């Protein structure tokens, strides 16, 4: 095939067809993998696997570049453009035809882009070195299967994570305590702006109802989108500490966040939480909210980063509601 200058952005018609064929093949493979994992018993675990998050996008982008640039004559701009185009097509297709939620797609995008770039430029480097094409083709064909087999033999680490947020409230612990315990009719104007809830659309709290005070009581948290779950009180120190254990008795939270990751499943267990109220010398109170969860994946480092963002935003918003209501009560009493 004739070579053409690297600064020429317009490929010949035959090469355009190869590029389209490369993307089509990659999308068919991605859809096949999705359907196979969805039908598998271990499907949700597979969606959080290292091979799906890292190896698969690298493989697909490498395949597109391999098919789309057979002579290795395309410029680096071609290899840079392949991963974002593929990720964009996957996001649009998943949202429009597969019903995937925005949280799942947002979590998927950064790591797919990075690993896709690694795969694309690995092909470019190997092509420039004139490695044997047949051997390279075979390695592309069996890479995902090999990576999946290796990962399935690796033990899954269990990592306990404590997520902590604090806020200074201009009120006494006795004024804050009722709102740490329960809140009715939380309005749309209460709380604060967060990326997860204001931009990504994560549900917001609407009310927290306690059936009876003291250890053994049960708080039911109601969120928007019809979500509810329970918090069973394990420690009750009036004005000082309130602790609970989460109980997710239905799938409403999972349905509106990420169908593949249950809050009490094989990948993630949101376990316990507590409020601590610490009076300060200037008459204010430090209100601290902690959430303890267990991450059980081969990509805990990545899951922990998203937990810090998503759960951290939820904590910030809850603390803002308690702060606003307690300070309003303090101002009225004053």
From TrEMBL:
Chain segments annotated as transmembrane: 20-40, 46-66, 78-99, 105-123
Keyword set includes Transmembrane helix: yes
InterPro entries per the UniProt record, alphabetical: START-like_dom_sf
Protein origin, superkingdom: Bacteria
UniProt keyword terms in alphabetical order: Membrane, Transmembrane, Transmembrane helix
Designated name of the protein: SRPBCC family protein
The species this protein was found in: Novosphingobium pokkalii
């Amino acid at each position: 095939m004739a070579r053409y200058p690297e600064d020429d952005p317009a490929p010949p018609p035959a090469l355009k067809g190869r590029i389209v064929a490369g993307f089509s093949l990659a999308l068919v493979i991605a859809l096949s993998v999705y359907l196979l994992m969805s039908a598998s018993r271990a499907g949700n675990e597979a969606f959080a696997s290292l091979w799906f998050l890292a190896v698969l996008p690298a493989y697909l982008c490498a395949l597109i570049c391999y098919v789309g640039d057979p002579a290795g004559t395309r410029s680096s701009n071609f290899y840079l453009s392949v991963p974002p185009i593929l990720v964009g097509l996957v996001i649009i297709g998943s949202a429009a035809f597969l019903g995937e939620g925005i949280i799942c797609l947002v979590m998927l995008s950064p790591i797919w882009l990075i690993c896709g770039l690694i795969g694309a430029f690995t092909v470019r480097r190997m092509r420039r070195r004139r490695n044997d094409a047949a051997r390279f083709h075979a390695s592309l064909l069996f890479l995902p299967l090999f990576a999946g087999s290796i990962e399935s033999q690796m033990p899954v680490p269990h990592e306990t994570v404590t997520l902590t947020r604090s806020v200074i409230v201009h009120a006494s612990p006795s004024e804050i305590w009722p709102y740490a315990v329960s809140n009715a009719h939380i309005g749309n104007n209460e709380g604060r702006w967060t990326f997860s809830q204001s931009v990504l659309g994560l549900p917001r709290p609407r009310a927290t109802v306690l059936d009876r005070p003291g250890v053994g009581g049960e708080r039911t948290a109601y969120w928007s989108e019809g979500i509810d779950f329970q918090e069973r009180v394990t420690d009750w120190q009036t004005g000082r500490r309130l602790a609970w254990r989460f109980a997710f008795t239905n799938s409403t939270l999972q349905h509106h966040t990420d169908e593949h990751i249950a809050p009490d499943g094989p990948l993630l267990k949101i376990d316990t939480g507590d409020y601590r109220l610490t009076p300060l010398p200037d008459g204010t109170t430090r209100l601290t909210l902690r959430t303890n969860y267990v991450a059980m994946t081969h990509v805990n480092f990545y899951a922990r980063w998203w937990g810090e963002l998503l759960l951290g935003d939820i904590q910030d918003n809850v603390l803002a509601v308690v702060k606003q209501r307690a300070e309003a009560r303090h101002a009225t009493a004053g």
